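B., you asked whether I could sanity-check this one before it goes into the benchmark set. Here's the sequence:
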Amino acid sequence: MKPYNKKIVLENGKEFYGWGFGADKTAINEIVFNTSMVGYQEIISDPSYTDQMVCMTYPLIGNYGVTDEDYETRVPTMGGLIVREYNDLPSNFRYTKTLSEVLDEYDIPGISGVDTRMITRIIRDEGSQKVMICDADMPYEEAVKAVREYVIPTDMVSRVSCKKRWYSRTPNHKFDVVAIDCGIKLNIIRKLNEKGCNVTVVPCDFTAEEIMKLKPDGLFLSNGPGNPEDVQTVIEVVRQLKGQLPIFGICLGHQMISLALGAKTFKMKFGHRGGNHPVMNLETGKIEITSQNHSYAVDVDSLEGTELTLTHKNLLDNTAEGVESKENKLFSVQYHPESAPGPQDSAYLFDKFIDLMRKECEGNA
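And here's what the prediction gave me:
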């Protein structure tokens, strides 16, 4: 067996040795785990993982390579990838690069050979914490000191948001949507295009006045990394535009909508990440299997006294998974109905957004 050349050191002092792949660098991030069995390309290219190192619970990663068509952002910004077994010989007629080649290209370190089951149990028991990936011979005391002194940034959204507006158009479009980019996944834009929407993607610091000058039929608030309270510019936009046009939010967008209407958010112990979370639609009684990726959640009790109604709840921990304010023409969900990766139980939410815009246009006709 070849000697270990990398290790990870957790904030709690535990260390795990393994073999490096991807970028050969030292990095410190927050460690989280993801329970998805497939979809690692969509995971590494999801901007919501900015400054996070992801531990995959599924044991074999890399076996189908990476394809040019399946990225969720043009420039992946994940902090690092932790896997049990890495496969560098993909079997997939679509693959164009190995996972290690892509991680190296975007300066993302990876480590394999570690006990991902034990790491996941640590996160579940103790909560998400900071982690370092470094060379195996780095002195233990030096590594632990660096991890514990590291301060996690709070400017992730501004770093991953586009710097100027851009467009994604579709033939014979019916509606014009402005999407505020807080780290938007490309499959969300694809879904909106499929529903007949031209999408104008704007930076996270776009003002309400700038948005309304584009004359949108609807406003979309995207997913993204970090604490929703750090994105005050978008929260203020929602406060100003609520009731003026249909608004739909996903993940971070859901949290920002809730904050704008007076609810509160909190950081979860270890968050929800993976494509197997059961959510009940309180309006229909149906249970949806959902794809999720978030560290923060909306406080259910804080919805009382606001204009928001709880529409979906998580069946594992009863956290808020969806809210709506019909009088303000807005709704949002915590999970990812665009399903990249994940089940497609919740695709109907895009139709709900389309129906809201259609009714608004008919009412203004």
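One thing to flag: The CA atoms of residues 282 and 311 lie 5 Å apart. Otherwise nothing jumped out at me.
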